[in-house]
Each structure stands twice: as C-alpha cells, then as structure tokens.
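Morning!

As promised:
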Amino acid sequence: MSDNSWRGRGVLILGAASAIAEATARELATRGASLALIARDAGRLDAIAADLKVRGAPKVAVRGLDLLEAEPTDALLQEIADEVGGFDTVLIAHGLLGDQEQAEQDGAHAAALIDVNFTSAALWALALARFLERTHGPNGVVAAIGSVAGDRGRASNFVYGAAKGGLAVLMQGLAHRSALKGGPKAVVYKLGFVDTPMTADIPKGGPLWATPETVAKVIVKGLNGKSAIVYGPWFWRYVMLIIRLLPQPVIAKVNF
Amino acid sequence: MALSYHDQVLTPWGRVHTGAVRIARPRSQSELPDLIGQAQTGGSLLGVGLHRSYGDSGLNLGGAAISSRGLDRFIAFDPDHGVLRAEAGVSLDEILRLVVPRGWFLPTTPGTRFVTLGGAIANDVHGKNHHRSGSFGRHVRRIGLVRSDRGTIEVSPERDPDLFRATLGGLGLTGFIAWAEFALAPIATSEVIEETIPFANLAEFFRLTEESEGQFEHVSSWVDCTAGGRSLGRGVMFRGNWAGSGPLHAHAPGVKLSVPFTPPLSLMNPLTVQILNASYGVLLSLRRGTVRTHYSNAFYPLDAIGGWNRLYGPKGFYQYQFMAPPQTQEGAMAQVLTEIAASGQGSFLSVLKSLGPLRSGGLISFEGPGVSLALDFPNRGAATLQLLDRLDRIVMQAGGKIYPAKDGRMSATAFQSGYPQWRQLEAQRDPLFSSSFWRRVTHER
C-alpha cells in the first residue's frame, strides 16, 4: 500500500510555503523523502514541517530566508544539506504572479516580477546545479516551476510570462549542458491555471483549472522522468502548441 | 500575501438554500486574527468547511465566512496511543488515509468522509456505533479556537470546560475552530463483517435493535417509507463488527462515479422512489446474509457517487432527521411513517438508527437516548414544507428534536422545544459569529 520510493532521498524546496510547493512536499513526504524547506516566512514553515513529519517524512528542516537577498553560496547549501542528511533534488517554486497592468505602468512592480520569477530563480538554479553536480553528479535533479504564460507573450500577463519564459530557456539550457557534461537533470514545469491563493482574485471554474494536488502529482512524476519540459496538467502541451501556432493577425483579435 | 475576503456563492448539500457570502480562504492559522478583525467592521462571521451541512447551518448570508479548507495540516500523531491533532480543515477522508494503515480509525463517523474535522466537531456528528461510542465530541480532547473577543485560545475539559462543551455541536458559533485533538479507535483490519437482516415492521425493528446492540458495534437500518398498514416500518438492518484480522488498507482516493450535471428535473419523484424502494428491498433480501467488506462499502456507500445530491434536480431537497426519546419512540416513528406514506412524498433514503445514552456534553448536540430517523424529500415547495411542519408537530409532541446539520426550515418553536439549552450556547457564542440558521431559530435580527 505505502509507496516508499523516495525513502533515503532528500529534497530542497525554495518558496516552500506556496500551495503548489506544499502539495508537492506532501506527495514526497508520503513517499518517504526528507525535506528542506525555505521560504521568507519561517513561521509558516513550522506548521508545514509538522504536517510533513506526520505524513511520513523522516526529517524536515526549515529556514526563513529571503531568496532575493540571500546568496546561494556553497557554504549555505552545504549547511542546509547537512540538516536533512543531504539532498539530491531541488524544486525552485518561489514566484510572484503580480498584476500585468500595474507592471506596465510601474517600473518597480515590473522589476519585482522579473527579479523574483527570473533573476532569483535563475541564480539559485545555476548555483544548485553546480552544487548538485559536485555532490551527486548525474543523479541530482534541479527542477523549477515555470508557466504556460512563458510560451507566448500575450496581453494579459506578458511581464510575468517573459520572466517565466526566460526561466524555461535557462532550465532547458541546463538540461542540455548536463546531457553533454554529466550534471544534474534539469526540469521545468509549465503549469496552467492552478487554484491557489495566488489566483484567488481570478474568477474560476471550467476544465482548465487544476488543484495544487493534481499539479503536485505531475511534478513528483516529472522529477523521476526523462523530459526537460513537463506541462502540468498534460493537456497544456497541446493548448499551448495551438496558441503558439496562431498567426499574429489572429491573436491580435483575441484579448487573453 | 495579503489575503482577504471575496464574494462567492455557497450552496449547501441540500441545494435548496444558496447565496453569496464574503469568504476568506486562509492557508495559515497566523492569518486568522487579522481576518476576524476585518470581519468586525461589517456584520457577522462563520467558519465553514466542505459544505456538507444540508440547510442553512453552514451559511451566513449577508455576512462573512472563513473557510477552514486551507488549514488542512496534521499537527501531531501518536501512532502508539491513537491520538491525532490536526487543523480544522482536514477532512475525515484525509485522516483515514493517514491512520488506517497504522491500525486506527475514527472513533465514530457520519455517512460521508467528505466533512472536515471542524465540521465534525461543530455538528457533533454521530455514526452507526452511537450506542457504543456516542458522538464525535465525546472523543475530542482539546480544541483551538480563535475568537473575536478573546483571541487565540485553547479549550478542553480542564481548561474553560463550559466553552469546550459549548463548542461540541455548537454549530461553529463559539469562535473559529482552528484545530483539535481527538482520540482514534484501534482496528485490527480495515474490513468489517456485516450482516443484513430484513424486518417486517416497526415492532420487529425495535426487537431486532435490542437484540443487536449488545453484539454489534455498528447498527443501522434502511426503512421502506412507502409501505403502510401492517408493513409500516419494514426494512433492512445492517449490523456489523470490525473483523478480527486482515489487511489494513485505506480506501482509494477519489470517487468512483460522479453525477456530472444537475438533471433539469428531480430523478427522485414518487414513481422512482417507489421503484427504488421496492428494488432496493428485493436486492437486499437477495443478498441477505453475512459479507466481509471494506469499511468504505460498509460506512460510506454514497461517497462512491460524487455529487449524488444533484439527482434531486435544480430545486434540491430537504433532509429531515429527528429523534424521539425511548418513552415515545415507537409511537412517534409510527406516526411519522404513516404521515409520509399518506402524503405520497416518499423518501428514497430513510435511515433508522437507535441513539445510545452516552453524551458528549454538547449543549445542542443531536443525541440520545432514543431512535433517530433520517429522511430525504425532493423540494416540491409548499407541499413539502407543509408535510415537514406536520412532522415537526409529531416530533415536538414526542419530546424529540430535529438535527440542525440537516435542517433548513424548522421553526424557532420546534428548535427551542428540542434544545432547551440553546440559551446557554447563546451565552457562550462569540458575539461576532452567527449563521443564517442561528438567526432563524433564535429570531435574532
């Protein structure tokens, strides 16, 4: 009955207080993984950590850290690894959806979207890839949460989309590099609409919305899979294929 | 991230009552004081969960609500002694998936797993083992409340016992239930040995009940409420015990089937009810005997069909569950069943169950001793409401009471006659907390 496929492995999650990150951590905990959780608000991580232990995680370490400010030094990463008996997998899950109109008018908001979703995520991904290459060679996994918004620039969310698209190119590049030089596997998840507090203000309903639990299952499966790009749920691959192929004169008539 | 309230239409399980409330969905207990503070400025507040109450006890129309569903973390589990502490939004479904493989079960369970821990406490739910274990509240050890007047507090039989007891079955009115600790029951296996026995009428039901309760932990009966005369109260009893050994398998997650849309008309009309009652009876008499089955089949047969409430069509349905005490139970059941048979508004699912003498201490808990009957009626407007009013009079005369979790229409008189201690709950109520139900049955404006 119980699936122990992650027993003996450790996973570091950045942005661990988010709904998608927490749902993923639960999936991993029930499979026996140890978890190191990082988020800005350490207070929230304590409740999450207690839950993960009850669900089956042998060790859970938490750390309050502003990922935009903190430097991903080898010393820091080693310290975190030591707290959970080592980690071979990393999920970069911090992100900010923001507000497109505000980002168009207010440079500071646009900068925040790019800093969180691209700059910070990319720098941590590069540092963690270096670290895992040293500690686990080709057995490590660096994964990041991207978005279908990164597949084509559209009026409704192109600042966020540009940052997530940039992150996807970086992760794809890491995957290529690792294939050539034997580093950790790299995966980017291009997620569609997920019903989380981040999307609380958007009217929901319809088949395109997924729960964090559904997406978490896709993420955990993808960590052990072969693809560098994983759509979550799967149908977004085809939805985005069509959207990417729409000619500009057609898309110019649609506001989405 | 600043989280606050947004408008959402809520539809409780009976689908008769519906309306917009301002709802907040916190994901951390740390957000609760701030959300309760925000609600202070406009009207009233109610904690809500999975919306499985049938009528308006989980609605706060014109006011605000805080959903517990994002507070779905386990806090601590002692697998040696079977004590679980969890946030209020964890569902019984999720609890079972955690504890069953380790040899534990809920101390008692309602007929659905899709209720939250907070909801189980607020309604002091009961199950087929009421005669052995009493209601859920009897097994609760501590509750974390967040109140508008006292902030974050912990209540237990030792600490603030009056408020603790008022919270058991207190319909969420004593403050927001943030977490709770309760005792589980040990099981040797996830399988139940269940016996199915038909009975010809009410007298036989009562005889069979008396005979069964000493030997069986789980007892409940289905009644054919289309039958009258000498067959009045005929039905089938299910009585069972946990098997002594076997596998410990939690149920499979998700539902097997679901009702994908609401049919334009109720599929539960007098004709289909008659056919269903007759065929259900035939089916069960065919499989009369003893089966060994997983707890999900024995305790949660309806959970296999997602959204079964939609079968009642766009107008929804009323559930009517009442109990009558031992002195009047036989007469009251006979009168109610006669009244229903005469009305032609048969109920498809009619569940008869005796309630034991054990009490949780809740002020308005739906408790025994006595016998409880639960009935479903498609909403046919005034005709249905008039029938239910006639049933109310029988229940009041018998000194019985109607289950608030199932109700959306009983009069203030019917409520106050069944629950004379309601004023004590009113005294313990958080001044900010209220519900459509509470305003209705206490005539508060």
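Residues 107-136 of chain A form the longest helix (30 residues).

Hope this helps with the figure draft.
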